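Bug report

Summary: structure tokens for DUF493 domain-containing protein differ between web form and batch submission.
Environment: batch mode, default settings.
Steps: 1) Submit the sequence below via batch. 2) Compare with the web form result.

Sequence submitted:
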Amino acid sequence: MDPKDPDEFYARLRDQLLEDTKWPSDYLYKFIIPTDDEKSAQINKIFDNTGAVIQSKKSKNGKYTSISVNVRMNGPEDVIAKYKEVSKVEGVISL
């Protein structure tokens, strides 16, 4: 398995989510971005109208911001769709 192949990663994630979770369910996303209000706003916009609880915290030196998003999702496909949307934000790291 190629660790840089996003299709393989998402297929494995989908299988894990189907096996381990009863849907619909709350899901916790965690991201790290370079501290930038525009990037933060982009991520917030992706989760608009979802009822998500979004928390952000700057790193000790302020260079990075961690963002936690807790949101009710209907299934693995919805979870993966949001990961793909967020991956378009420049510099984002999904945990």
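Above is the batch result. After comparison, the two runs are identical; trailing whitespace caused the diff. The mean pLDDT is 93. DSSP finds three helices and four strands in the chain.
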